[in-house]
Design goal:
Number of strands: 0
Strand content: under 5%
Shape: elongated
Amino acid sequence: SRHWLNGEPRPEPIVGTPKDTNALTDPPQHGLPLQPGGGGSCRQLAADLGSMAHYWALGTAAHALLLVLVGFLGLAEGQYDFPMDSCACHIHYEHWVQLQLQLSRLLTESFPDELLKPLGSSLAHAVLRSQECRDPRKVSNRLEWTLAPANSDCTPGHLSHYVLCAQLWLMDGDVEGAAIYFDFANYLLPLAAPCMDPVMWTITPEVFYEHYRAVAEAAAVGRKATPELIRELAWQQARRLS
């Protein structure tokens, strides 16, 4: 007989005798379906199924590779943190705007006099008492007060808050506590300095350093918090300390 595909003889048609008709109706053996009418041999069918399995395996491998690639890209994106804008102050925006307003109204030329008035009789007392200024000596994790604010989106806001807390502790006659708060603020200054527009934050890096130095020196030698010393160390925005 003539050779068909792959050198195989052309299959003979199935004769539709009663004896042979079962070949079309009986379930196929080994799970391999038969084509009615003898359209191809079992060997050809197996070859076709093998090709299908090959392409299926290739598709599965490509899909797995794609998942790995997507996962890698997602991991790479997650590992890369875009630099935080320390000057943005978008998070808790209303709070920072209110703080800016308080600073502009509070840290004026009359602030030392306001600080020394009888307790509860000036705007300075009300503003300072409204700040959340815990005892800095009881800080168990210093990084929460320095590193966390340094990585925030409003470093000058946190620095300004610490300056107000330092004024509160001065008002209460605790020079050492004020010095600790200035120390917290000084940690933030390198990141906050480019953001400290005096129109917005009132506090400038130059005036900050003058007050930080004076308070730190007074605390180091254990100077007593007399009214004269409090007036000397209180924030004086309009002039530099001697």
